[in-house]
């Protein structure tokens, strides 16, 4: 137990240092700030492709064959600018964390992002210039957005905080002086993007976005989108929680990649292609993790909560079950993790890993076999109750999948729950007799 | 009137805690205002608080938050009390830390 505590405090120390860096916070806050776009886009996309068969036929019958157009205009212009928005948002948050006026920095992040993605769209043999490519301003530009956003934030704030700015006499109003103070940091950030753009263009006839996709983003997307990747993610989340550490740090890195997988799937859907592995669809996306593997909260504890709430004999677990039930329906399960507890409790270690792993395997193969269509761009807020989220994301098949996960969670946790409940019950009746 | 602000990863589980704490505080007539937010918002909501409490799952942020709020009491909620959502125990803890 002592060595266990030692591992815990070392891990906590490491995570603490990592989580305190400006880069990781700017990334996390920057991505969170773009979430409204994803959620709003999801609503419109959901209406235009509601998960019941014949939906399109029914709606076309009422509103005419072009009925989806305004919905798609909204959904595509939220999802397809997600990288662009992230570049601005990450640079903005970086400046904010450094205590610098953030708006100008965010704008320069956006400019640098656009400088470093291709500004050509090809359709067959035709090359169109003078456009912003939605391929790159959306999911494919995600890695570029993160790196450009962070580096812009870093250059801008370091230059500004070093005091390299154009100084105005005191008589110049503050508002006017501020526009000049942004010039040098902004200039140096943009020059950096300019140099990178020029070297890649004349040296390798490419762009930063193309380089980053092939060297960084594609390997990460394929890795996290694979079964081994999903299992590693699942095990890491449980491991963090066994030590009582929130898995937000893992999520802040994995989420943008997993979202890019969903957007890549959406591109296949939009092109009228089936979401099969052969067509290059990703079986693992943000929704896989958020609404299936960590359904009802990390470690997928819904079965344990149901057991406590409805069949516990001890007062302790009966009351914890009732307390934890409603939050669990909204995927908030800290009362279970800390109250049962799952955290630092060796006796629960088997189900804490096995239940989410089983959920991961099941969800993966449900998508792989096409029982549930792999997830596209539609997301639901992570607090959406299980079964509802399954239906919105995967139709009745998604709902069935979540129901099976509930059963697995119950079966997995039950034997371990029973033992602890029995001990508590005996201890309680012993106390009653003594009293 | 004491102002108690709780932070966790998203401000969700601490918001359950807030309710239990407020009930306990009202029952014993301890005048306080309790709120919960995401730890990303420490800079916005931390400075006005009399005491800041972190959910045990984000204890790894303790040093960072203490640095962000110099001179302000910043504490981590006890795991057991958090799990059982024991509002009374945490109000006791707050009183002890603030000397009320």
Task: Summarize, please.
The complex is a heterodimer of chains A (435) and B (100). Chain A has 435 residues and is mainly α. Helices cover 72% and strands 2% of the residues of chain A.
How is this structure best described in words?
The complex is a heterodimer of chains A (435) and B (100). Chain A is mostly helical. Chain A is 72% helix and 2% strand. Chain A has helices at 2-20, 22-33, 35-48, 55-63, 69-79, 82-97, 102-116, 134-137, 142-161, 174-181, 183-204, 208-225, 227-242, 248-270, 286-293, 302-311, 315-329, 334-339, 349-368, 388-434, and strands spanning 120-123, 126-129. Chain A has a two-stranded antiparallel sheet. In chain A, helix 2 (22-33) crosses helix 14 (248-270) and helix 16 (302-311) crosses helix 20. Chain A is globular, with a radius of gyration of 25 Å. The mean pLDDT of chain A is 91. In chain B, 43% of the residues lie in helices and 21% in strands. In chain B, helix 1 (13-27) packs across helix 5. The chains are: A mainly alpha (435), B alpha/beta (100). The A-B interface holds A 12-13, 15-16, 19-20, 25, 28-29, 32, 241, 244-246, 248, 320, 323, 327, 330, 332-341, 343-344, 383 and B 8-9, 12-13, 16, 40, 55-64, 79-80, 82-85.
């Amino acid at each position: 137990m002592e060595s266990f505590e030692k591992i815990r405090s070392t891990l906590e120390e490491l995570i603490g240092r990592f989580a305190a860096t400006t880069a990781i916070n700017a990334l996390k806050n920057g991505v969170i700030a773009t979430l409204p776009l994803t959620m709003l886009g999801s609503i419109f996309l959901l209406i235009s492709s509601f998960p019941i068969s014949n939906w399109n036929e029914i709606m076309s019958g009422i509103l005419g064959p072009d009925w989806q157009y305004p919905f798609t205009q909204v959904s595509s212009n939220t999802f397809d600018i997600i990288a662009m928005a992230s570049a601005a948002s990450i640079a903005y948050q970086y400046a904010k964390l450094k205590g610098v006026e953030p708006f100008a920095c965010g704008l320069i992040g956006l400019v640098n992002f656009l400088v470093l993605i291709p500004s050509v769209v090809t359709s067959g043999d035709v090359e169109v210039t003078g456009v912003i490519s939605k391929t790159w301003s959306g999911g494919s530009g995600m890695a570029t957005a993160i790196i450009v956003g962070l580096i812009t934030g870093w250059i801008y704030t370091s230059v500004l905080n070093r005091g390299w700015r154009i100084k105005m006499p005191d008589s110049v109003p503050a508002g006017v002086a501020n526009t000049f103070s942004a010039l040098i940091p902004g200039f140096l950030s943009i020059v950096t993007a300019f140099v990178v753009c020029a070297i890649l263009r004349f040296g390798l006839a490419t762009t930063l976005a193309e380089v980053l996709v092939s060297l960084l983003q594609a390997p990460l997307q394929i890795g996290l989108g694979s079964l081994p990747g999903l299992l590693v993610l699942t095990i890491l989340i449980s491991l963090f929680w066994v030590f009582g550490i929130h898995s937000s740090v893992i999520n802040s890195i994995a989420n943008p990649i997993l979202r890019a997988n969903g957007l890549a799937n959406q591109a296949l859907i939009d092109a009228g292609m089936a979401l099969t592995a052969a067509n290059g669809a990703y079986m693992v996306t943000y929704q896989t993790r958020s609404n299936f593997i960590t359904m009802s909260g990390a470690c997928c504890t819904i079965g344990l909560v149901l057991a406590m709430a409805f069949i516990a004999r001890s007062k302790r677990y009966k009351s914890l079950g009732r307390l934890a039930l409603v939050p669990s329906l909204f995927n908030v399960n800290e009362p279970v993790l800390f109250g049962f507890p799952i955290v630092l409790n060796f006796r629960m270690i088997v189900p804490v890993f096995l239940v989410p792993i089983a959920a991961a395997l099941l969800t993966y193969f449900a998508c792989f076999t096409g029982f549930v269509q792999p997830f596209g761009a539609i997301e639901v807020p992570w607090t959406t109750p299980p079964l509802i989220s399954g239906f919105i994301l995967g139709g009745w098949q998604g709902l069935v999948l979540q129901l099976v996960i509930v059963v697995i969670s119950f079966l997995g946790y039950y034997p371990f729950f029973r033992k602890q409940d029995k001990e508590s019950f005996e201890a309680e009746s012993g106390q009653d007799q003594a009293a | 009137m004491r102002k108690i602000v709780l932070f966790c990863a998203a401000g969700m589980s601490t918001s359950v805690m807030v309710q239990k704490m407020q009930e306990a505080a009202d029952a014993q007539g301890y005048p306080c205002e309790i709120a919960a937010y995401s730890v990303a918002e420490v800079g916005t909501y931390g400075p006005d608080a009399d005491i800041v409490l972190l959910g045990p799952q984000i204890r790894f942020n303790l040093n960072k938050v203490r640095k962000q709020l110099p001179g302000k009491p910043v504490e981590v909620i006890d795991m057991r009390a958090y799990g059982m959502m024991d509002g009374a125990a945490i109000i006791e803890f707050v009183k002890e830390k603030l000397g009320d």
